[in-house]
Design a protein that fits this description.
With about 200 residues, the protein is mostly helical. It has two domains: about 110 residues, no CATH class; about 60 residues, no CATH class. Helix 2 packs across helix 5 and helix 2 packs across helix 6. The longest helix is centred in the first third of the chain and has 16 residues. The protein is globular, with a radius of gyration of 24 Å. It starts with a helix and ends in a 7-residue tail after the last helix.
Length: about 200
């Protein structure tokens, strides 16, 4: 009898001390708090944080539309997770997001008139990001040696500002559609104040 108890205790100890591989592979949590950061930028890759999010934030995830506390038609595009609700990973052409920005019907296209539609380059950026897997990634590499307006500054302005500051009625009556308009607010310090969220700037 004592031998049976001893063997039972030994068996129990062995069972509980065994380690095994899990029966499933955990799914990577790629939520907003789990951005993958690449130190070196791959020129052939579209990065969500660097390339896609500014376009969405400037044109879609604004107050009264799909962000800023509002979610028209239940669509909130103010976060990666919200955007992913409108994306068919790997297939832009069956994604609601891509369909909305390429629709030919003025009643359905996003952003709706009188806002300007996304330009072809912005549409291709979103399409390629979806087709590349729609990952939540960021590139942190920064080249300060070769900065030009057309290659460095304009894409940032275009993707972050022109969604509100262009068209027939630009927000704050401030249009940022060309070099001269951007240079004017850059030269008086206003652009820097806004970008850096300094006190006294909108």
């Amino acid at each position: 009898m004592n031998k049976s108890i001893y063997l039972l205790l030994l068996f129990g100890f062995l069972v509980f001390s065994c380690e095994h591989d899990p029966l499933y592979t955990p799914i990577e949590d790629n939520s907003d708090d789990n951005v993958i950061v690449d130190d070196v930028c791959d020129p052939d890759k579209i990065y969500f944080v660097n390339d896609v999010l500014p376009i969405i934030n400037s044109n879609c995830a604004i107050s009264g539309c799909h962000g800023g506390g509002s979610a028209q038609d239940g669509v909130d595009l103010s976060s990666y997770n919200g955007i992913m609700q409108q994306v068919d990973v790997g297939n832009a052409f069956s994604s609601d997001l891509y369909e909305a920005i390429t629709d030919n019907d003025v009643d359905d296209i996003m952003p709706p008139p009188p806002s300007n539609p996304l330009n072809p380059e912005q549409i291709l950026t979103i399409r390629d990001w979806i087709n590349q897997g729609a990952t939540n990634e960021e590139c942190s590499e920064c080249d300060l040696a070769n900065i030009t307006f057309s290659q460095s500054v304009w894409p940032i302005i275009q993707n972050n500002c022109t969604g509100c500051h262009s068209g027939a009625s630009p927000q704050g009556n401030l249009s940022l559609t060309n070099y001269d308009e951007v240079a004017q607010i850059a030269s008086n310090g206003y652009l820097s104040g806004v970008i850096n969220h300094e006190a006294g700037f909108i």
